[in-house]
Backbone:
């Protein structure tokens, strides 16, 4: 089992003819993802890695029954690409593109919510249901199928932690990156709910960081969960008022600090790791019980 | 990007938001000309991109021409919270009957624009207790209409003409929020002076990622010397006050690296995210920049995913060929093309750690005064 995507998910790649789009199409196919179409306006009729390219997402759905999409188009064009996918009836939308103006993100999220689309990102590494399918950009080698769900706000830090899990023999159901921007489609709570319901997920890893208040909001839900959660929060040493790489990683106007997140998670019964490698230790311990 | 108060007010004025009479001055002479034009008393406000100007002595009042000259001479060219004051805004000093707070921003959890208002204006909104803050979430598809403004005004205790004035002000603020891709449109305090509402202060922050579609907005840079240099190179960099320079790949892992150094008793000198899939050239530039900051140790922490470890190794060697590293390098590499990277490094008498923790401990140990490594580097401090 897994959440949101599996080996049957039919994926269209928007921006498939670009450098990032074509590289990651190949990587996703290598992982076993069922890539059924690509979209680049004006390039209909082409093929990339043997995948047919269409001019519109609607055509990709009509001819190839795509139900998920991943967006690799440049930031100024990303809003339109997202609107196209949502409007055409895509169910799961992954936006990898970085530096999308957040006013565009506000509109994309609004449309996704109204059309019941699961929107991952912007500025997300994507999602991987271990051993089945990967939509996005994480390295294929780090994942192992198993009982742990992972949800995170960052990319490379998640690879580090997932890799640690795999090296310790602790596999994953699904790993999902919410995205590093200040406005993204999903919050921790949305994914925690899915992991709580998923039969094969036995424990959850939550990787948060400074900025916003979604870790605090997640803590409220975690209190009602039956499955154990292990957490890690990045940004303990971050000064206030500075954006730490991610648009969303900023302590501003007295909110978004490290301490409040860690304390709320701990109060909700989350085992919070102080350093990244402890996450795998804690999870391995929990699963032995 | 934050805008200076006077630039923000220029944008407010164009939208029809009521403001005090005023003008911008770069010299005491210019300040005097503006003051004469407005009439006394006046306020002289330093234009720096930081809050708390009043407490820091950056806002003065003048009742006559002598005071204008004295105060503007004192403020212009002075340092205020680390910023040099190059301009002052000279404004009429209003009679204040009541101070309010109003702002529009995006709520990252609700993922919607949000209007915050309070009848307790003039202080930082984070210092106002929740019961005095009115919050209205905006549906971005609908926008802000007068009824929403009236509803907020009612909760602030306004009636009649004042209510209508406030409502029209909020609509204008929201128009600016959307039109300029603003992160924050804030008026604090919004004052009632007689029967008028006037924006005494103005904060206007614009999304850096949206600047490309606002060619007419000025481009302002703020930050430390190294932050500006890094920004010019397209790097994500934050200056900190320690002595261990850090380069990692990805915002989350870079933050985690700083935290790890701090937990082990070290002091990180900076945040530098070389990016998720950085190539040799940008990484070499990033490393050169770190070397120029003259740290005690340079710590490189790479988890190779899309980033290839051998590219990182090549970037290190590229810099090493042309410049001497001032400080010992501590390198941690793991993941994609790790073996190739280790080989390349070993051929050049460099080594790398596989574990992030081990490497961090080493970096901290090397930066300690007792390590006996002071002056080992070839650069002069």
Residues:
């Amino acid at each position: 089992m897994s959440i949101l995507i599996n080996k049957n998910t039919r994926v269209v790649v928007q921006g498939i003819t670009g450098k990032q789009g074509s590289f990651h199409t190949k990587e996703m196919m290598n992982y076993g993802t069922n890539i059924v179409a690509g979209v680049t306006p004006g390039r209909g009729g082409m093929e990339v890695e043997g995948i047919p390219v269409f001019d519109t997402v609607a055509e990709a759905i009509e001819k190839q029954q795509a139900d998920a999409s991943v967006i690799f188009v440049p930031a100024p064009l990303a809003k339109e690409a997202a609107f196209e996918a949502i409007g055409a009836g895509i169910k799961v939308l992954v936006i990898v593109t970085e530096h999308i103006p957040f006013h565009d993100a506000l509109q994309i999220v609004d449309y996704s919510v109204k059309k019941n689309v699961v929107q991952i990102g912007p500025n997300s590494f994507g999602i991987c249901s271990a051993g089945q399918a990967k939509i996005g950009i994480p390295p294929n080698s780090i994942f192992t199928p198993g009982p742990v769900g992972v949800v995170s706000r960052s990319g490379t830090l998640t690879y580090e932690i997932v890799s640690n899990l795999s090296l310790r023999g602790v596999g994953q159901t699904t790993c999902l990156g919410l995205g590093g921007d200040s406005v993204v489609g999903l919050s921790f709570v949305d994914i925690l709910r899915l992991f709580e319901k998923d039969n094969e997920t036995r424990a959850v890893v939550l990787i948060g960081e400074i900025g916003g208040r979604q870790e605090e909001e997640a803590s409220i839900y975690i209190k009602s969960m039956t499955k154990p959660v292990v957490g890690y929060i990045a940004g303990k040493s971050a000064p206030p008022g500075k954006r730490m790489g991610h648009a969303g990683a900023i302590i501003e106007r007295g909110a978004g600090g490290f301490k409040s997140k860690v304390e709320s998670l701990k109060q909700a019964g989350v085992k919070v790791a102080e350093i990244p490698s402890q996450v795998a230790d804690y999870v391995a311990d929990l699963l032995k019980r | 990007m934050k805008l200076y108060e006077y630039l923000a007010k220029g944008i407010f004025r164009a939208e029809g938001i009521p403001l005090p009479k005023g003008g911008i001055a770069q010299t005491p002479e210019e300040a005097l000309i503006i003051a004469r034009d407005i009439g006394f008393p006046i306020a002289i406000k330093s234009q720096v991109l930081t809050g708390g100007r009043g407490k820091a002595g950056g806002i003065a009042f003048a009742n006559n021409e002598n005071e204008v000259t004295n105060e503007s001479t004192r403020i212009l060219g002075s340092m205020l919270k680390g910023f040099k004051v190059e301009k002052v805004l000279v404004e009429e000093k209003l009679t204040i009957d009541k101070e309010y707070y109003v702002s529009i921003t995006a709520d990252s959890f609700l993922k919607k624009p949000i209007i915050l208002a309070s009848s307790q204006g003039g202080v930082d909104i984070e210092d106002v207790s929740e019961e005095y803050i009115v919050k209205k979430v905006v549906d971005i598809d609908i926008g802000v209409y007068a009824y929403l403004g009236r509803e907020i005004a009612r909760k602030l205790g306004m009636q009649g003409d004042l209510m209508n004035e406030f409502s029209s002000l909020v609509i204008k603020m929201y128009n600016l929020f959307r039109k300029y891709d603003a992160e924050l449109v804030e008026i604090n305090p919004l004052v009632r002076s007689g029967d008028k509402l006037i924006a005494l202060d103005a904060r206007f922050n614009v999304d850096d990622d949206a600047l490309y579609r606002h060619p007419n907005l000025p481009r302002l840079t703020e930050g430390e010397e190294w932050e500006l240099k890094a920004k010019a190179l397209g790097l994500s960099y934050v200056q900190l006050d320690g002595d261990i320079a850090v380069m990692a790949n990805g915002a989350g892992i870079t933050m985690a690296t700083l935290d790890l150094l701090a937990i082990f008793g070290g002091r990180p000198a900076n945040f530098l995210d070389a990016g998720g899939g950085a190539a040799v050239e940008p990484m070499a530039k990033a490393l050169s920049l770190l070397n120029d900051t003259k740290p005690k140790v340079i710590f490189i922490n790479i988890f190779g995913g899309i980033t290839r470890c051998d590219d990182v190794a090549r970037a290190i060697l590229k810099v090493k060929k042309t410049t001497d590293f001032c400080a010992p390098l501590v390198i941690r590499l793991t993941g994609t093309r790790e073996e190739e990277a280790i080989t390349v490094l070993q051929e050049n008498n460099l080594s790398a750690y596989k574990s992030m923790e081990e490497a961090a401990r080493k970096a901290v140990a090397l930066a300690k005064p007792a390590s006996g490594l002071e002056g080992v580097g070839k650069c002069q401090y």
Notes: The domain at 138-288 of chain A is CATH 3.40.50.261 (Rossmann fold). Chain A touches chain B through 66 residues (CB under 8 Å).
